[in-house]
Design brief:
Length: 378
């Protein structure tokens, strides 16, 4: 393909090679290491799943009896209660948070027991990375991945956990898109970048039916917005779309934003003010910013995965109801006891199972999809 540059998984130019980062630590050692990383991130106030000590306001999470031992161990270190959000408008602080989270998510990916390789790709001016594993077999299909991070955090090069699992299970390469982030680049920059990357695939021989799109958290919202935009432009649509723990309403109107605010072990400090940085001057209920307000007529098959401990649970439930009302083929898959973005966590059986189901969903619709070109209803 045009513009291909080989790099190893550390990002340095090299001959294309498989790279095994599975550590020799046992699962308990890896869990301790990951919990330490999460605790360090908590110091920034950016993403706070745990505290080192329990206070009157920060009590230990109730541990679900219906989840795996690994998930119970995660909850044993987590805390309840909300914490103040950090100032995402401070450029220096935001850059420190981005770097810290990047190291954490890259560590998660390295602890997943699979070899992988990254190949940098210029997607018509938008950076991206091909994510391949030894199980990659079908070069005629592609899974486009849009990472999470509230539209202000995350990276296509570091947020790799779910991409590794889904790509391995499906045997299909994943194309991770490095879209621009707010507040430096508010809406529609991320959507423009995602659309440019999708257009590059079409220009390089892929049909819409050869492409699946997925995203997690804010990337889930962006995956929805991208597909809605493609539909409205009359562009061939992807075979299917999956959204994992999606952020679909940056206005924060869902009921579980209140009822689960103190019990979500990950999004304890994330608030609407931070999400609003992405909107710029646009209304928070703009359907391509908060796609829970969109029209889903003519939308491809959609899979939604969300956990019962997620503050964003209502975002998924409302999205499913809205899409079904408009006649879309929707599967809402609610996971008992799971937290926001559990798909990235190493040594977690529920992550393997959930991403395996996403892979099977994609394979099903790759096998049945034809070329789709639709336009929005007048």
């Amino acid at each position: 393909m045009v513009g291909l540059r080989n790099i190893n998984a550390r990002g340095r130019p090299a001959q294309l090679q498989q790279w095994n980062r599975y550590t020799m630590m046992n699962p308990k050692q890896r869990l301790s290491r990951n919990c330490l990383l999460l605790a360090l991130v908590a110091l920034t106030g950016a993403w706070t799943p745990m505290r080192a000590q329990t206070t009157d306001e920060q009590e230990q999470q109730l541990i679900p009896a219906t989840v795996s031992e690994q998930a119970q161990a995660f909850y044993a270190r987590a805390r309840t209660g909300t914490v103040p959000a950090s100032d995402a408008a401070d450029p220096e602080r935001l850059e420190r948070i981005r770097n810290m989270l990047g190291r954490m998510f890259r560590g998660f990916a390295e602890d997943i027991s699979t070899d992988f390789e990254l190949v940098a790709q210029d997607l018509g001016g938008v950076p991206g990375f091909w994510v391949k594993t030894p199980q990659t077999r079908r070069a005629d299909k592609v899974i486009v991945y849009l990472h999470g991070g509230g539209y202000i955090l995350g990276s296509a090069e570091t947020n790799l956990g779910s991409a590794l699992r889904i790509g391995s299970a499906a045997g299909i390469p994943v194309l991770s898109v490095e879209y621009r982030l707010a507040p430096e680049h508010p809406f529609p920059a991320a959507l423009d970048d995602a659309a440019t990357a999708y257009g590059w695939l079409l220009d390089n021989g892929y049909r819409g039916g050869d492409i699946a799109v997925y995203g997690d958290s804010a990337g889930g919202g962006l995956a929805l917005a991208l597909t809605l935009h493609l539909r409205d432009q009359g562009t061939p649509l992807p075979a299917s779309v999956a959204v994992l723990s999606p952020l679909t309403d940056i206005a924060g109107r869902g009921d579980t934003r209140a009822t689960l605010a103190e019990f979500d072990p990950v999004l304890r400090s994330a608030g609407g003010g931070r999400y609003a940085l992405y909107a710029g001057g646009e209304p928070l209920n703009h359907p391509l910013i908060s796609p829970v307000y969109a029209d889903y007529h003519g939308f491809p098959p959609l899979l939604i995965q969300v956990g019962t401990r997620e503050k964003l649970l209502s975002d998924s439930v409302r999205l499913a109801r809205r899409a079904r009302r408009d006649g879309a083929n929707v599967t809402l898959d609610v996971w008992e006891g799971m937290w926001h973005g559990w798909h990235d966590h190493p040594d977690l059986p529920e992550a393997d199972l959930a991403t395996g189901e996403v892979a099977q969903f994609f394979l099903t619709y790759f096998d049945s999809a034809g070329q789709r070109t639709t336009r929005a209803a007048d």
